[in-house]
Write a structure and sequence with these properties.
Blueprint lengths: L16 E5 L12 E5 L15 E3 L16 E4 L5 E4 L8 E5 L6 E5 L3 E2 L8 E9 L7 E7 L17 E6 L2 E5 L2 E3 L12 E8 L2 E6 L2 E6 L7 E9 L6 E10 L10 E4 L27 E11 L10 E4 L2 E4 L1 E2 L6 E7 L16 E4 L9 E10 L13 E2 L11 E7 L12 E10 L4 H4 L5 E8 L2 E11 L2 E9 L2 E11 L4 E10 L1
Parallel strand pairs: 5-27
Antiparallel strand pairs: 1-2, 3-18, 4-7, 5-6, 6-18, 7-17, 8-17, 9-14, 9-18, 10-11, 10-17, 11-12, 13-16, 14-15, 15-16, 19-26, 20-24, 20-26, 21-22, 21-25, 23-24, 28-29, 29-32, 30-31, 30-33, 33-34
Length: about 500
């Protein structure tokens, strides 16, 4: 491990274990072990008290199944990039595989959280999530949105009234108007932590493992809000994230008895009202067994776009699409499908299917689109809009730490474009994000530095998990390339290539 925080899975409750920890320096020298004994158990369940609005321990993925009525969550994610993983026997919680290295998965509770008040308790509402999402390079967001939006953001464009708690490598924040309170404790890759967002009569606090890490004095004016849980892994890396539990306070409202089916628009681009639409649409089959239906689209807003004018063209129908909440960033719009398109009779196929809005520019792109249906009791089997289940297995070999290069002047100070002569290239080898892959790291035997296709340095490291090394080189004016080749003690090998220029 390369972080201070590591979780040991697959242990037996009540059995005593001896744990030894050794430090390894940048050249593979190993310290004498520090040891401790412990007995695993169920932990303190007190945080679960009061989560009466919803409490889900995700024993399986049934509460996310959008093809059966009664599911508790809508899962938003780019299909093919966000998948529900096959759970290994030692894994805890719902596994979400993020396979494209940049996408985010967002869970929206289908029922809203309702604030309550009591003369004996200043707390109005609380959201609690047990997850490893905010590990190294990852991010966790908890949003309270005064409308059933599937996604909101970015931070600079949250809808009015939205409260966001956020944890990542940069620290902890509560938006809007929040101030940093304390640095969060360590969060290792794959280690579960309890994160809570609490609303009171005096403001909002964000806590990690019972310790307040950020706060805001903003008090919401709404009584009901939809809970969104956003999880993201390190940029450019395929990772698996777990949700062990999630819930919130308030009365347990009814869960909408709906199912979902995906629809593919003729184009992801939001069109101007008068633009010519591509001749592609959808078949009407999902509507034949529906008592009612809505088209739900989440899209990015471009500058100058009039969100309130959004309409969805479905064949010859132009349906007004109301925003769940107004936003200048990402907005979810909802359009009711006319009853004339339900039942056995009606036009088929429905062409075209596009989204239109006045002032829509190139940045106005659809991120997600689906039909939400209230099915007839004898409805036929349906497809689902949620990400597919994947049997993609985690790597079985230990992950090799990765290297980054920093270019510096002759004194080692960072310089994007150094002057001619002596340079210092700083090589940083780290297993922090690599540890997401398997939870274990392959020791680094050594590395080579190549400059313009010629090896200029080779350094044995003796089996370290990481380190920082400053290597002086000489370079003439012009364009250059530097490459670090990292070698594991077993079979691992990786490289990092950087282009730079010298004045």
């Amino acid at each position: 491990m390369t972080t201070e925080d590591t979780q040991l899975d697959g242990l037996t409750d009540g059995q005593k274990y001896l744990v030894e920890v050794r430090a390894v320096d940048a050249f593979g020298q190993v310290s004498t072990p520090a040891s401790a004994t412990g007995v695993p158990g169920p932990g303190d369940p007190a945080w679960r008290t009061g989560l009466t609005g919803l409490l889900d321990d995700f024993p399986d993925d049934s509460s996310l199944r959008a093809d059966t009525v009664g599911s508790s969550w809508h899962l938003s994610g780019y299909r093919g990039c966000v998948d529900l993983g096959a759970r290994a026997s030692t894994e805890i919680g719902l596994p979400i595989d993020l396979g494209c290295g940049a996408d985010e998965a967002v869970l929206r509770a289908r029922r809203p959280m309702t604030l309550t008040s009591s003369t004996s308790d200043p707390m109005l509402g609380r959201v609690a999530v047990l997850t490893d999402a905010a590990g190294p390079g990852g991010r966790l967001t908890l949003d309270l949105v005064p409308g059933p939006a599937d996604r909101v953001g970015p931070d600079s464009a949250l809808p009015a009234g939205t409260i966001r708690g956020e944890l990542d490598d940069g620290g902890a924040r509560v938006l809007p108007g929040g101030s940093f309170v304390a640095a969060p404790g360590p969060r290792g890759a794959g280690a579960l932590h309890l994160v809570e967002l609490t609303v009171s009569a005096t403001g909002v606090t964000l806590s990690q493992d019972g310790r307040v890490v950020a706060s805001s004095s903003v008090v919401p004016t709404w009584r009901d809000a939809w809970v969104l849980i956003g999880v993201r892994g390190p940029e450019g890396r395929r990772v698996r994230i777990h949700l062990a539990s999630a819930g919130f306070t308030g009365p347990p409202g009814p869960v909408p008895q709906v199912v979902e089916t995906p629809v593919s628009l003729a184009t992801r681009q939001v069109l101007d009202p008068d633009a010519i639409a591509p001749s592609a649409g959808i078949v009407r089959r999902p509507l034949t067994t529906a008592l009612s239906a809505r088209l739900i689209v989440t899209m990015a807003v471009s500058p100058g776009m009039e969100v309130s004018s959004t309409r969805i063209q479905l064949g010859t129908y132009s349906l007004p699409a109301r925003p769940a909440v107004l936003s200048d960033g990402v907005v979810t719009v909802i359009a009711d499908v006319p009853r004339a398109l339900l039942g056995a009779n009606g036009p088929d196929p429905l062409t075209p299917l596009v989204v239109r809005a006045a002032g829509a520019g190139p940045g106005a792109l659809v991120q997600e689109s689906y039909l939400e249906l209230v099915p007839a009791p004898d409805g036929s089997p349906r497809t689902t809009t949620q990400p597919a289940r994947t049997d993609r297995q985690r790597p079985t070999t230990d992950a090799l730490p990765t290297a980054t290069l920093t270019l510096g002047d002759s004194a080692g100070h960072p310089a994007e474009t150094p002057t001619e002569g002596r340079l210092v290239i700083t090589v940083t080898i780290s297993g922090v994000t690599a540890q997401w892959d398997t939870g274990a790291l392959e020791p680094v035997a050594g590395f080579q530095l190549w400059l313009d296709g010629r090896m200029v340095a080779a350094l044995p490291t003796g089996g370290t998990a990481g380190g920082r090394y400053a290597i002086p080189v000489t370079a003439t004016p012009g364009d250059h390339s530097a490459e670090i080749r990292v070698f594991g003690t077993a079979t691992g090998r990786g490289s990092t290539l950087t282009q730079f220029a010298v004045r």
